[in-house]
Amino acid sequence: MKKNNLSSLIIATFLISFIGTNQTVYAQKIAKEINVQKTITKEVLTSILDKNKNLYTQGKVANYIPELGKMQSNKIAFSVVTENGKVLNVGDVNQKFTIQSISKIISLMVAVNEKGEKKIFDKMGYFGTDKPFNHFANLDLNGKPLNPLMNAGAILTTSLIDGEGDIPYQKILQMVRYITKNPTIEINNSVYNSEKETGHKNRGMFYIMKNTGLIVANNEDKLDNYFRQCSIEVTAEDLAKIGYFFANHCTRFDGDKKYYNKEISKLIESQMLTAGMYEFSGEYARTVGLPSKSGVGGGITVSVPNKIGIGVFSPALDSHGNSLAGYRMILDLVNQYNLGLFD
Ligand code: GLN
Q: How remote is the CA of residue 167 from the centroid of ligand 1, in Å?
């Protein structure tokens, strides 16, 4: 039995004998809360990382965007922002990677802040999915994307942010910098050019939505903004801060409440829960049970509602396009501390 499980058991036993057996459930609840609040440490993160660090050999670094294939497959990092905003980082803490699809929760926030939820969701659904992230799902049926977290809906969401040229992208970048309090965050231009040159399937979705009138555009600037947002470089720590932000009603890890908004965080966390891990989302909800968003760069951001943020990085992906070791590290942490919504 792990040390922290043992100490919560001792606390629970003490509380049970003190309060009386008819209040056992209450005592267990208190013990569980003490456990969650007190014991996530760097040592725990290191032991989970060490346990899972060789799993990368079972996955595959994405190379359908050629530039992504250059990432060293054994890089790994694990970060948590605790309830009081403290940052814990282990592994390759300085390793940068592109945010990819995790940017979709930021662009959704920017678009909804600007236009209101109704205007965005008149054009797309709140559906979950059994399809991969780049599937044309629904575009050929009723023309509307399934949700804002698969590529079609995300391309449409970004196209709805006001501004000419790269202004919508700049708004997304500024929001990522704000949430992470990290003004050094920049685009990786090689990845951007690589996506732009090879992203013909995304281009196809863009033109279908132009055809149906969902996207109004005279050129590909709006599509380029989607490629740009995916090419923003972050670390696992940045992802943990993004997770913390949405977990806490859009409160930044340092307590800043400039964008405080419970409705936006409810919207985004619900989308993360139903579609954030693509066709794996249902099984992920069953095993992890937390709003999460993955990217093909190998990152996953996790929100533990009203509590903490988790960020992981390991570039070798499973067959759904989710970080393989990243998922297993999240699962271990969640199981060890009963962090899941349904625990
Ligand atoms: N830029 C990637 C793409 O559009 C994002 C996909 C992802 O991270 N799942 O294909």
A: 21
CA distance 34 to 242: 25
Q: Tell me the per-residue pLDDT of 88-114, one tens digit each, with 9 for 90 and over.
A: 999 999 999 999 999 999 999 999 999
Q: Relative to the CA of 102, which ligand 1 atom is closest?
A: 8
101 is catalytic: yes
Q: Running DSSP on this structure, what letter comes out for residue 85? A: S
Are 173 and 188 spatial neighbours (Cβ–Cβ below 8 Å)?
no
Q: Tell me the pTM.
A: 0.91
* 40 vs 34: CA distance, rounded Å: 11
| Interatomic CA distance for residues 250 and 340, integer angstroms | 20
Q: Crossing angle, helix 221-230 and helix 200-211, to 10 degrees?
A: 140
Concatenated DSSP letters of 258-282: TT--HHHHHHHHHHHHHHTTGGGHH
CA of 112 to the centre of ligand 1 (A): 21
